[in-house]
């Protein structure tokens, strides 16, 4: 670990964590060997499995860190780090094999526990059958056949009900599929309507903009006419402003009074 600390503090820390887990695994398997209760053994195996999973994760982090530093270290250092990683993997694999062995033994014990009552009941049935007469054996056989027929009828009923449920489910799925198709068609129609509405809104917007421009132009013309009229009324002798048709004052005429003609 001291050599690793000189290379990388992170590698040294990972190595220390892996070593702690290996010590915990060693102590855990020693305790497991002394346990007699299968339930306690099962719980202990689960805890050891979790520790081995953590150890595997740390070894992967160690390997990732070694690969990141591969180009910055010399060949001897890289070889030492790879040997250290292989040693970790080898030790972890030994604990994994030990765990599989204990798990297999535990499964065999459980199988023996479940098989023992079956063997004892089989022996009891054979002893019971040997003490029965032929008529009793025939009656017992007929009774078992009747029970078997009833079980078959119940199974047929269950199968029939299952088929009916499957048919109803298929019909419901078909109806839902058709409904989904109608919904998709309606969505397409709505999308088309929205697209047409968007086009209409754009056209209306362009028409409104055109109308505004025309109104603005008319407003400017009206303002100009009003300005000319005002200027003409204020200064009628201004020759720079032409008379507006229909608004020019009437021309002066020489009128002679009737009494002047005499």
UniProtKB/TrEMBL annotation:
Residues 38-79 form a coiled coil. Residues 142-204 form the T-SNARE coiled-coil homology domain. One of its GO terms (cellular component) is endoplasmic reticulum membrane. Pfam families: Sec20. One of its GO terms (biological process) is vesicle fusion. It is found in: Membrane. It comes from the Eukaryota. Keywords: Coiled coil, Membrane, Protein transport, Transmembrane, Transmembrane helix, Transport. The chain crosses the membrane at residues 214-234. It is a single-pass type IV membrane protein. The keyword Ribosomal protein does not apply. GO terms for molecular function: SNAP receptor activity; SNARE binding. Belongs to the novel plant SNARE family. This is Plant SNARE 11.
């Amino acid at each position: 670990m001291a050599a690793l600390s000189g290379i990388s503090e992170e590698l040294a820390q990972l190595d220390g964590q892996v070593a702690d887990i290996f010590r915990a695994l060693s102590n855990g398997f020693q305790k497991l060997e002394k346990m007699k209760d299968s339930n306690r053994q099962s719980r202990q195996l689960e805890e050891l499995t979790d520790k081995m999973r953590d150890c595997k994760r740390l070894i992967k982090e160690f390997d990732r860190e070694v690969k990141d530093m591969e180009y910055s270290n010399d060949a001897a250092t890289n070889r030492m780090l790879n040997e250290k990683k292989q040693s970790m993997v080898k030790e972890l694999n030994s604990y994994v094999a030990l765990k599989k062995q204990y798990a297999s033994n535990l499964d065999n014990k459980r199988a023996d526990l479940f098989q023992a009552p079956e063997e004892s009941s089989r022996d009891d049935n054979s002893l019971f059958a040997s003490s029965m007469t032929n008529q009793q054996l025939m009656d017992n056989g007929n009774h078992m056949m009747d029970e078997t027929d009833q079980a078959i009828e119940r199974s047929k009923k269950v199968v029939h009900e299952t088929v009916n449920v499957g048919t109803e489910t298929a019909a419901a799925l078909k109806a839902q599929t058709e409904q989904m198709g109608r919904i998709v068609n309606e969505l397409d129609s709505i999308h088309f309507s929205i697209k047409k509405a968007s086009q209409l809104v754009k056209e209306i917007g362009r028409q409104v903009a055109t109308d505004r421009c025309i109104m603005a132009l008319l407003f400017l013309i009206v303002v100009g006419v009003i300005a000319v009229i005002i200027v003409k009324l204020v200064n009628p002798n201004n020759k720079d402003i032409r008379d507006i048709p229909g608004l020019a004052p009437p021309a002066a005429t020489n009128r002679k009074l009737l009494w002047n003609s005499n």
